[in-house]
Amino acid sequence: MKKCDKWYSIVLMGLVLLLASSLIACQPALSSAPPVEPADTTSPPPIGGFVATDAYDGKVNLSWDKSMAEDFDHYSIYVSKSEITDVNGMTPAQEIADIITNRYQVTQLETGTKYYFAVTAVDKSDNENTSVACVSAMPTPMPRGTVDPDVHVEVYQSDMAWPGTTLLPDNYDPGRPRIIEVNMLGEIIWEYLVPHNLKQYTNPGFDVELLPNNNILFVLPRRGVYEIDRKGRVVWSYLTDKISHDADRLPNGNTIFVYGASDHKNDAQIIEVNQKGEVVWSWYAKDHFDKSPYASIYDEGWTHTNAVTRLPDGNTLISPRNFNFMVEVDSNGSVVRTIGEGILEDQHDPEILSDGNILVANHVIPHQAIEIDPKTSRVVWKSAGFERDITPVRDADRLPNGNTLITGTTRILEVTAEGKTAWQLSLKDVIFETPKERPARGFYKAERIGTQR
């Protein structure tokens, strides 16, 4: 073998050995590489609290609970004329990237056609729970009425408001007191004129409510409580001068009402009567509060009780305005608890919410609607304060979409939980010549009647 060939063989053998050792040295590094993460195939949980509501004239409002998905990417909204059980293969009508946005208005639908809707959450790996429980709604035309010279709608955000009509007493013209039902545009679609011989009995507290049979129950202070049908015919009444502010029809057919207009210690502040007009239950504040510091109070009555509500457990919630708190009593009339001490001032029309909290109009300065947790006495929500030209604020109702309908003297507002105005009805060119005219002639209470009633 030549020297060069021998040298070449030695070099080649060295290169082979060097390559082999390099490969061996690399083995530990290769074996220590992190394992590949498996692909995310878990879909976000189904959406809860999904509701579809006719918003009139080819529009449907959708709302749902916020997604709990940690890797949320967007909501997908589906629309169909047939029932939806699985959205696999369907194209979303809309995608919403903001997890906080949990409402949407579907437009350009056919009036009188039933539609089905579904909403899903999609995560960043494009996972989607395609099996859905859909909801349905049928767009209908808005009921139309007549334009009135005294009232008008200044704000109407159809995608934010709870659609329907609004029922309220209107005493702005004392010579022509009436009950009106207005549509979302402020047009009057139904009206009842209080008879001429009764028109002086409208203050304080000309309360009105819709009954399940579509009749209207209303209070004429110091005169009585009446039930009329939609043709204005009186179908039931209970006459007494010991009545004011508030009356409710109970599920058993009885009627419960308050007396707080110039009430005295010997008066029953709460009375319940049956359909025959027999008193079946009453409550006297003197049995519990004829003591310091309440015994010497007097401001338009001893207690000036202005509201009563029968609770689901059979107890009764009472609002003695002058005491600056609410009282819950049991079926025997014994005080279970007082609510709102140190928070409330001249409170009006408390309402029990589905979670047990209480929504009430509060007359601290400025007036506002507040929601109280009675277990902790904490204010868990409050509206913005209202300027003087709207006060007094005497009613607040929580609507099914979470908005709140608030009745002030010159305006009725629907506000979102965030404080945005979704709807506002106002008195036109209102002029009150004296301070006493404000509560006497202004709005008192209002009730929204939903489209799906």
Structure characterization notes:
The protein has 453 residues and is mainly beta. It folds into 2 domains: 51-137, Immunoglobulin-like (Sandwich); 151-450, TolB, C-terminal domain (Neuraminidase, 6 Propeller). 8% of the residues lie in helices and 36% in strands. The protein contains 3 helices and 32 strands. It has helices spanning 3-31, 286-289, 437-441; strands at 51-54, 60-63, 72-80, 94-96, 103-106, 115-123, 135-137, 151-156, 164-170, 178-182, 188-193, 208-210, 216-220, 224-228, 234-239, 244-249, 255-258, 270-273, 279-283, 305-310, 316-320, 326-329, 335-339, 348-352, 358-362, 368-373, 378-382, 395-398, 404-407, 411-415, 421-427, 447-450. It has a 5-stranded antiparallel β-sheet, with no helix packed on it. The longest helix is centred in the N-terminal third of the chain and has 29 residues, at 3-31. It is globular. The N and C termini lie far apart (108 Å).
